[in-house]
Write a structure and sequence with these properties.
alpha/beta, Ferritin, Rossmann fold, 3 domains, 9-stranded mixed beta sheet, two-stranded antiparallel ribbon, 18 helices, globular
Length: about 500
Amino acid sequence: MAVIGFEEKLWSAADKLRNNMDAAEYKHVVLGLIFLKYVSDTFQEKWKELMDIDPDFAEDRDAYTADGVFWVPEIARWGYIADHAKLPEIGQIVDRALDNIEKENPTLKGVLPKNYSRPELDKRILGEVIDLFSNIDVGGSLAREKDVLGRVYEYFLGKFAENEGKGGGEFYTPKSVVTLMVEMIQPYKGYVYDPACGSGGMFVQSLKFVQEHSGNTFDISIYGQESNPTTWKLAKMNLAIRGIESNLGSKNADTFHDDLHPSLKADFVLANPPFNDSDWGQPQLVEDPRWKFGTPPAGNANYAWLSHMIDKLGQNGKAAIVLANGSLSTNTSNEGEIRKNIINADLVDAIVALPDKLFYTTGIPVSIWILNRNKKHPGQTLFIDGRKLGSMVNRRLRELTLEDILNMAGTYINWQNEENYEDIQGYCKAARLEEIREHDYILTPGRYVGIEEEVEDGELFEEKMERLTKTLAEQFKQSLELDEEIREQLGVIGYEL
């Protein structure tokens, strides 16, 4: 996906300063400073604007909060921090700045990292990172319009997730996967909910979708929950720097055991819950009213997540949920029965099979479930097989291209709207409920779309065999010549095969 250009350069410069610090630890150092820089720059711009009108206004907090700008005390402003970047006590200065910002802005209480003065953090490195960020304008109207800070923050989140590997997947869902989910269910207006929100990427992409389609971002209301305390803070910061109002609860909390939004009925659910979570506390929840389709097994939370999110959907609600492929076909521990009941309730609108290596947590392929309480095609489910899509960005990671995203989302939207849709062997098929029953309620797309037809190249079989045989003979000959050359070279240095 396209980035601003200086993001990668900025990351390279910042990463060089990391030295031997663990990526998971350095993440909070850098992201906290980016947030501080943004808060300060936006405050400073508003301050200048108010000074031009009337100097008395510049000290009126309401003038800032009314415009969605955080109040920043003088000792917390970036200019003050940058001037002291080379001092040995710079860690204490940054901690004090963040502490003062929290005290002056209740919505940030308990959110900002305040451990820059700890002895193990090299203060020379801290000062150099501050100098690095001093040279970019991440606030101001032009920067905000381009979402400079938000995109830098998002880019850094992705890079930290990549560096942390499996641990990184706990707070970050790859952007291309999120974009696909958002493009498919198109959250224009209403309540958007994510019960395992990580660092808030689903919400950011939802707002971007609305903006890119000329909608009004005030028509979207954000609700989320996150169990990991540090990840919950990342999400709060991620949304705050974009001016996105949200309700992520007053604390981090486990969605199954401490639902912070018990009465919520969402218009859209977007989620990438932990895959195959085997320790989710089922014994305490056996009689939970959310299990309308059956009690999920203790050893795997996949169907607990599905059941919880279905319970949260309003009467016209839609959901896009990423789950491990096992959820499509497993029949053990009551999962098959729950899947059967969900299918018979006609809630499964589409299943999209994705390629492997898309996630930092695992290389296994996964699928997106599209659930819909108000299906345009009752009694049908669209299957899309996207396992061959995407391109490798390095040896471990694959990314869906924009073309891949638009093709898959477009297939679903066209089917919904009955415009320019047709089944394509090996790629997509709209299957009726009767056919799914014939397949024992297994939802693996490959069972329905079939195998892609091979394109005939027009070459006669006899001619192709003659050509391939000649090629193979030539390759055998070259192999023998290389073997002989290797033997001779080994002999020169005193070795024989």
